[in-house]
Amino acid sequence: MWKLDYQPNELVEINCPACSARDPKDIAREFGITIARCNHCGLVYTRTPLRDAQAHYRSPVVGILGKYGAVFRAERPHPRDPNYDEQLALLESLTTPGRLLDVGAHAGFFLRRARERGWLVQGVEPSPTTAALARGQFGLDVKTGTLFEAAFPEGAFDVVTMLDVLEHIDQPRPLLREVARLLKPGGRLLVKVPNVRYVLAKHYFLRRVPGAVRDVFDAREHLAYYSHKTLTQLLEAVGFYVELLAIASPIQTGSRLRRALRGAGPAVARHLPKGVALPLTTDIVAVGRIVSAPRRYASDDVCDRRPAGEGESTGRRRA
To answer: Which of 237, 243, 121 shows the shortest CA–CA distance to 186?
Structure first.
């Protein structure tokens, strides 16, 4: 369903997801989509995303069963199970298992691992198809819809997790404020996102090699690209104290050689000072603890969207 080149009338233009500023410096194009860096807060983001960048998650159930049927039947593990266990162990080094909410729960693969480790789990998932699979295949309490639509009570959870979710959100501050509302005093949020420094390194080193890497930024679905610094700034803006930043292990898919190469960078980075700040690791994890009421910004609920072809060209830098 994805195309290799999009025209301006198929795209929209957004402000910086983190600070809502409209002060970008364009740094790359992918499939006709423009990626920029915010001159105000430094976030790298997709300035001209697809009109419905998350539409591909509305997959028919037959496709998901075809891909994950053996996992649902417990005939083989999910390829991300080691990653899920790593993230749960990280949480368990800070707190004992309690009530956990997973935002963007997909088909419940992470939640089933958390439940096995003693957590009391719930989830929320926008896709009706995958939310139904989480309920039907694993017997999990996963609500269909957005976090706002779920209307959980204030202070209901000890921990909220967002794994590979925040990069898909064009207005993260309202979402994170809602997460803060749902956490008990001292509760924790665990966020896992791709490391933009790794992404940018791939882009700069391989952009002149024809056909080397076509989909570096995942710009057809990813809307924001975080570093340890910009992720920390965002979490602190809504009242979290970032008590831990960690290097996440890469997902174990592909050939043995590919897995080894992908894992070499994180292995080296873990032995270096400030390794999480280096472009060696594919993903980073932050754990924030709620310590204060989130700061309110007048622009929090505004993200000015317009067709990318209207006004300025997608390739021109604004003053």
So the answer is: 243
Residue 132 zone, left/alpha/beta (φ > 0; ψ -120 to 50; rest)? alpha
The burial class, CB within 10 Å (0-12 / 13-18 / 19+), for 160 is buried
- Give the CA-trace dihedral at 159, 95, 89, 78, to 10 degrees: -30
Neighbour-count burial of 267, counting CB atoms closer than 10 A to its CB (0-12 exposed, 13-18 middle, 19+ buried):
middle
| Length of the chain counted residue by residue | 319
The larger pLDDT score, comparing residue 41 to residue 316, is at: 41
- Nearest one of 82, 136, 148, 142 to 111, comparing CA atoms: 142
Which residue from 202, 145, 146 is spatially nearest to 171, judged by alpha carbons? Answer: 146
Q: State the Rg of the chain over Cα.
A: 19
pLDDT in tens, 240-251: 999 999 999 988
In this structure, the number of other CB atoms found within 10 A of the CB of residue 53 comes to 20
Instruction: Give 11's DSSP letter.
Output: B
* Domains in the chain: boundaries: 8-307
pLDDT in tens, 161-185: 999 999 999 999 999 999 999 999 9
The CA distance from 170 to 295, in Å, is 19
Confidence of residue 303 (pLDDT cuts 50, 70, 90): very low
pTM equals 0.88
**Torsion on CA atoms 98, 102, 106, 107, rounded to nearest 10:** 10
CA distance 98 to 119: 5
Say which residues have a Cβ less than 8 Å from residue 27's Cβ, sequence separation at least 6.
35, 36, 37, 44
Per CATH, the homologous superfamily of domain 8-307 is: Vaccinia Virus protein VP39 (3.40.50.150)
